[in-house]
Amino acid sequence: MGNYELRITNYELRITNYPLRITHYLIMSDLYISWTEYHQKIETLAKKIYDSQWQFNQIVCLARGGLRVGDILSRIFDQPLAILSTSSYSGVGGKVRGGIKLAEHLTMTTDTLGSQVLLVDDLVDSGVSLQESIGWLKSRYPQIQEMKTAVLWYKSCSAIAPDYYIDYLADHPWIHQPFECYENLNLAKQDYAD
């Protein structure tokens, strides 16, 4: 294949001297969201769902990112909330996307899951979490007659298009959400020896 260089630093991917002799830069921008913006986006999402006139009787949120979104939508629509714990990011700062891990069980306070399910997350990036979660829910809860998805941010690189979203992001930014500051505040690692 020849002698080529692949270098990744600070969200920049640079490939030089590839067999086609191209140089390509991919720079991932950053998007910073305040608490006010975050809550406004959830309220706007609720309005969009309401305006669609789709009747659902269950909200399932993907934890952790979809927890706050799901909680607020559950309160606005007065529908039961179920939680499916998932994990697809790890590494320093939780910025390394890996394989999806899904919980064994759904957490819910009702005896059965509703038949019209709104599946909620904060964002859809690759689309793997949403796709896998849809499959997981349908395989375990055959009473689901219809399922729609809702997110705040829809990245263009996603393999799945959500039914409801607020922002379409063509440039794939890293989204800094307002609760990110708590990820650096890890009391379990603090030294209380003093």
TrEMBL record:
Lineage: superkingdom: Bacteria
Record domain Phosphoribosyltransferase: where: 34-183
InterPro entries per UniProt: PRTase-like (IPR029057), PRTase_dom (IPR000836)
Matching Pfam families: Pribosyltran
Protein keywords: Glycosyltransferase, Transferase
GO molecular function: glycosyltransferase activity
Signal peptide: none
PANTHER family: HYPOXANTHINE PHOSPHORIBOSYLTRANSFERASE (PTHR43363), HYPOXANTHINE-GUANINE PHOSPHORIBOSYLTRANSFERASE (PTHR43363:SF1)
Protein name, per record: Phosphoribosyl transferase domain protein
